[in-house]
């Protein structure tokens, strides 16, 4: 494979999705942004939506806005996200944070399996998910045990071990569809089928897959799912999350954070809670409309581009990055901490190095590249196919090589204070 920048320019010129890059704010054209898997870029359309929401809808329409689209926004945007994750429009709703939604659905699942005590996950899952599970186990009287199945290598999910661990005592299996460090992509259909055979419910965290990897919740028979909107969905920092409940489970599960937005007749202001039917029963309090509305512009772009086209570009770009790693970085001591098989990874690549943290700091401060770092040695390079170019990838790898070749990282402390 060619490693010159001209080849990257040729790939960009042939990219049918390249024009979407112009629809994002790129304030510093010299900055290479490789952290869209943590916080997506700002869509230009979101600026107009925010201005209209604040100046006209809030400023002029005032409380009338609730009857002019605000009340239905969670369902409307959820229905659009459903098209990205293989769900029906009435199976997804935008609400709260990823952690709160995980709490809601995990408690609901455990209450639906009262005679079972095991929760199964893996050690590649996002730590915050484990914290929520630990809190739930404590809240429910320490009746449940959390079984954390170890990865064989810190990269690949322990699929076969998880299947073997499932039993008649398993209430819930919960995993990240794409794991946050290595980018490993689980076989959702196979894992879900194994869980169902054991009589367990499944809860998938889609935070690192929605918007970059085709997801087929209905096809896999998945029970429950959650996901954030500020990564590949470009909803903005701290934008509300979404949750999915398979249609036939919606009336069976009980929302443990019952609030007036899930009350059957909320404006009667009755003192007894009676949940509404459908996905609104998994809402709680008043939704933050300013941030909820900003999710929609990028979701519309993703739908316009098509998730299959986005996945095809993502796989081409991650393969290109891996090829550049092999040619230019492996000789400098970098390891590939993501799966080699493009069909088993998401849209970010992790590279390891003994001096990973200091290299990451030099890349940010000396090379004008924004990646992200995950201990102990993972430099994560996120590829957002809507706006990441092949030239971005080439320059990132070239500058990584320069940092190590010229030992630019040596001026940084090994363990700087984390803020």
Please tell me about this protein's structure:
With 419 residues, the protein is an alpha/beta fold. The protein folds into two domains: 5-30 and 306-411, Aspartate Aminotransferase, domain 1; 47-303, Aspartate Aminotransferase, domain 2, CATH 3.40.640. Helix content is 37%, strand content 13%. The protein is built from 13 helices and 13 strands. The protein is globular and about 70 Å long. The two termini are 40 Å apart. The model has no long low-confidence stretch (mean pLDDT 96).
Total strands: the figure is: 13
Average pLDDT metric: 96
CATH architecture of the largest domain: 3-Layer(aba) Sandwich
Biggest beta sheet summary: 7 strands, mixed
- The unreliable regions are none
CATH fold category name of the largest domain:
Aspartate Aminotransferase, domain 2
Q: What is the element string, with H for helices and E for strands?
A: HEHHEHEHEHEHEHEEHHHEEHEEEH
Secondary structure elements and their pairing?
Blueprint: H1 5-13, E1 32-33, H2 44-61, H3 73-84, E2 92-95, H4 98-112, E3 118-122, H5 127-139, E4 145-149, H6 159-165, E5 170-176, H7 188-197, E6 201-205, H8 217-220, E7 224-227, E8 241-245, H9 289-293, H10 296-305, H11 307-329, E9 335-336, E10 348-352, H12 356-367, E11 369-370, E12 372-374, E13 378-382, H13 390-405
Helix pairs in contact: 1-13, 3-10, 4-5, 11-13, 12-13
């Amino acid at each position: 494979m060619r490693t010159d920048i001209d080849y990257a320019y040729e790939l960009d010129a042939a990219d049918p999705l390249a024009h979407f890059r112009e629809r994002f704010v790129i304030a510093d054209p010299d900055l290479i942004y490789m952290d869209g898997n943590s916080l997506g870029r700002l869509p230009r359309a979101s600026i107009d939506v925010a201005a209209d929401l604040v100046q006209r809808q809030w400023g002029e329409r005032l409380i009338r806005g609730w009857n002019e689209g605000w009340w239905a926004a969670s369902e409307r945007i959820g229905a659009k996200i459903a098209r990205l994750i293989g769900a029906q429009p009435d199976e997804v709703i935008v609400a709260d944070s990823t952690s709160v939604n995980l709490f809601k659905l995990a408690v609901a699942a455990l209450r639906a399996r009262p005679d079972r005590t095991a929760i199964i996950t893996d050690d590649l899952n996002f730590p915050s998910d484990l914290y929520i599970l630990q809190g739930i186990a404590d809240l429910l009287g320490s009746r449940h045990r959390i079984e954390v199945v170890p990865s064989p290598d810190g990269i690949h999910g322990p699929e076969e071990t998880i299947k073997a661990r499932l039993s008649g005592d398993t209430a819930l299996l919960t995993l990240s569809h794409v794991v946050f460090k290595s980018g490993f992509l689980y076989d959702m259909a196979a894992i879900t089928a194994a869980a169902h055979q054991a009589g367990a419910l499944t809860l998938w965290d889609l935070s690192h897959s929605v918007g970059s990897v085709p997801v087929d919740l209905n096809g896999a028979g998945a029970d429950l799912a959650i996901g954030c909107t500020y990564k590949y969905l470009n909803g903005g920092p701290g934008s509300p999350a979404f949750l999915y409940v398979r249609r036939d489970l919606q009336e069976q599960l009980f929302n443990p954070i019952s609030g007036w937005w899930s009350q059957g007749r909320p404006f009667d202001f009755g003192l007894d809670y009676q949940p509404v039917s459908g996905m609104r029963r998994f809402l709680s309090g008043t939704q933050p409309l300013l941030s909820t509305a900003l999710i929609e512009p990028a979701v519309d772009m993703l739908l316009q581009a098509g998730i299959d086209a986005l996945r095809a570009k993502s796989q081409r770009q991650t393969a290109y990055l891996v090829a550049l790693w092999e040619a230019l970085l492996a000789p400098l001591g970098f390891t590939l901490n993501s799966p080699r098989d493009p069909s088993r990874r998401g849209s970010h690549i992790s590279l390891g190095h003994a001096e990973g943290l200091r290299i990451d700091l030099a890349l940010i401060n000396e090379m004008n590249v924004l990646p992200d770092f995950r201990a102990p040695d993972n430099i994560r390079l996120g590829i957002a196919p809507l706006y990441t170019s092949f030239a971005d990838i080439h320059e990132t790898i070239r500058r990584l090589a320069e940092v190590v070749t010229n030992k630019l990282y040596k001026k940084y402390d090994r363990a700087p204070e984390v803020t």
